[in-house]
Amino acid sequence: MNDALAALTARARACRICVEAPLGGPLPHEPRPVLVPSSSARILIAGQAPGTRVHASGVPFTDPSGDRLRDWLGVDAATFYDPAHFAILPMGFCFPGLDAKGSDLPPRRECAPAWRAPLMALMPQIDLVLAIGVYAQAWHLGNKRKSSLTETVMDWRALWTSDARPRVLPLPHPSWRNSGWLKRHPWFENDFLPFLKREIAIRISGDLGKADPESPLS
Ligand code: SF4
Q1: For ligand 1, atom 3, which residue shows the shortest CA distance?
Q2: What is the Cα 215 distance to its own chain's centre?
Q3: Cβ(192)–Cβ(156) under 8 Å?
Q4: What CATH class is the domain 3-97+104-210?
Q5: Nearest CA to ligand 1 atom 8
Q6: How confident is the model over 106-129, as pLDDT tens digits?
Q7: Ligand 1 neighbour 111 (Cβ under 6 A)
């Protein structure tokens, strides 16, 4: 990691905005930002926010969602956690807490405005963003996002062939809660995931010459 990115990462890891200057109620626990910036990774995983297990481990995607995500990407844990290959920046770096039903709260809204643009500016080598869930899709796709997550993910071919850089591919969250969504949308596993695995493999091998800039229908 270069010096500027290392310095900004250190500041983000020491961040206390959500307890000292929150927008609304403060974070109900000590901040524990979980992020993996990188000066060399081609791929950015733009997730949602840590859950309870990741809050405890301090390592992103150390949970069943991570297992499913690695399966989607076609990579093992060693590759996934190698910052030479993947940078990981959730939309909220800290576990936001649980709602009354025991579900994870949304990412803290203080986080992205404070950290995301400066971190992205120091990672210009990123050429593929995997935008997981509506919060990451809103930030990384802006007005290219459709009115629902399903419509946005279904639009992946058009997003791939757009002029926007870095390229952004939208994904649903790999949580078990989305197993029903996956069953209702078999095209995701049949069409989208083979393409995604191929583009991930190309970037990990460093052989970007094999990437097809035009057609997602290989
Ligand atoms: S969620 Fe983000 S803004 Fe809030 S304390 Fe954690 S790092 Fe800081």
Answers
A1: 111
A2: 23
A3: yes
A4: alpha beta
A5: 15
A6: 999 999 999 999 999 999 999 999
A7: yes
